Amino acid sequence: MAAVRRFFSDNKNAMTRKLHVSDDADSVACAAAEALIVHLGHAIRTHGRALLALAGGRTPEALYRRLAAPAQSARIDWPHVVLIVGDERCVPVDHPDSNEGMIRHHLLDRLPTAPAALLGWHYHGDPQAAVNAFSHAFAALDGGVAPRLDIALLGLGRDGHTASLFPQQPCPPGIAAVTHAPDGQPRMTLGHDTLAAARARLFLACGRDKAHALGLVWQGTDLPATALANAEWFVDEAAAIHADDEM
Q: What GO MF terms are annotated (predicted)?
């Protein structure tokens, strides 16, 4: 479990941010899993299902493996959980850079009970076509109207990006193709308003290479992650070094 837990509230900016600081990445995964299990249970009890948007990248891998472990998986009513890939590179699902492929490998393929659905992007060469198909499937979850996410799990890039929302670029609304990612690789993503509307947001940030970005977010620097920072943050000691200075 988390060795240290600190809470930070920024009332001046009408923001409520909770910072959970753990010793290392494994402890972060443990603390985040506990919180996620609670949020999933609450959503299912309240709405009869839970819509969970999942982050890509390397940091969530340990969390996904923990959620799939028998002790934790047994506490989740998976047939009432809809998993949603929050953003995706324009690659096939079997590509090493695919977020859906990572999620399948570390979570879905390890579960003893399948979730209600996994909503991915199904890229076949045309980003906008993939976005259109995803948008239609997303809206179909609520009879044709885009539903509200129950939980959005998010990561933090070294440049302050989250999902595929990047600095110095307009934050796309709804669901969008992103054609000007810094690495030059087109992407598809849930937009800012969709993520901002989530009933709960959980951020993960681990490693000293995330410390500068986390400090900027805590300072209120204009970054995509800052715009969604009204959330629970699960970070390790290495990442939290500058955030501590802002508390």
A: 6-phosphogluconolactonase activity
